[in-house]
Write a structure and sequence with these properties.
About 40% of the residues lie in helices and about 20% in strands. By secondary structure, it is of the alpha+beta class. It has two domains: about 5-100, P-loop containing nucleotide triphosphate hydrolases (Rossmann fold, 3-Layer(aba) Sandwich); about 115-165. A hairpin with a 2-residue loop joins strand 3 and strand 4. Helix 6 packs across helix 7 (about 145-155). The longest helix is centred in the last third of the chain and has 13 residues, at about 125-140. InterPro entries: ABC_osmolyte_uptake_ATP-bind, ABC_transporter-like_ATP-bd, P-loop_NTPase.
Length: about 160
């Protein structure tokens, strides 16, 4: 397992992404202004740390930048600005070849769109959400949905909130 530290991460799609980032940082523009210019600010100034052994969940509305953020954590997308450190190494400064050699990088950030959609419908308290995310995080690769279903079978009160009209 790896430690991840994200500092001031931005991902801007469209013309002049560096200029758009600068304008967002200094407050001279809004995301609505950028949109009218054909620019999409997918991730704006994300900063957080995930220590070894922790489970960190990114949740949000459709189109809010979750998948873009995860792709930057995995090194599949380069950020417009900011840094992603894995075990103290800045992966945003690495070449594709160097990135492939980072131990433990693959699989530390996963995107489960079907699971995310289901979880959004559940009315879980913090303890239930933490328990579910721990179950999914401990599941072997490819068995995450099965782990979520097993958790639901063991926690019928949470599922009742989802299935009751």
């Amino acid at each position: 397992m790896s430690e991840i530290r994200v500092e001031n991460l931005h991902k801007i799609f469209g013309p002049n992404p560096e200029d758009a980032t600068r304008r967002l940082r200094n407050g001279s523009t809004t995301t609505e202004d950028l949109r009218s210019e054909g620019v999409t600010a997918a991730v704006i100034d994300a900063s957080f740390q995930v220590r070894q052994g922790e489970t960190f969940v990114v949740m949000g509305l459709s189109g809010s930048g979750k998948s873009t953020l995860i792709r930057m954590l995995n090194g599949l997308l380069s950020p417009t600005s900011g840094h992603v450190h894995v075990d103290g190494r800045d992966i945003t400064a690495m070449s594709r070849k160097e990135l492939r050699l980072v131990p433990g990088r693959r699989g530390f950030a996963k995107d489960f769109p079907d699971l995310t959609a289901t979880i959004k419908k559940l009315k879980l308290n913090d303890a239930q959400m933490s328990s579910l995310m721990d179950s999914v995080a401990r599941a072997p690769h490819g068995q995450e949905d099965q782990a979520a279903r097993q958790w639901a079978d063991q926690n019928p009160q949470a599922v009742a909130a989802f299935t009751t009209p």
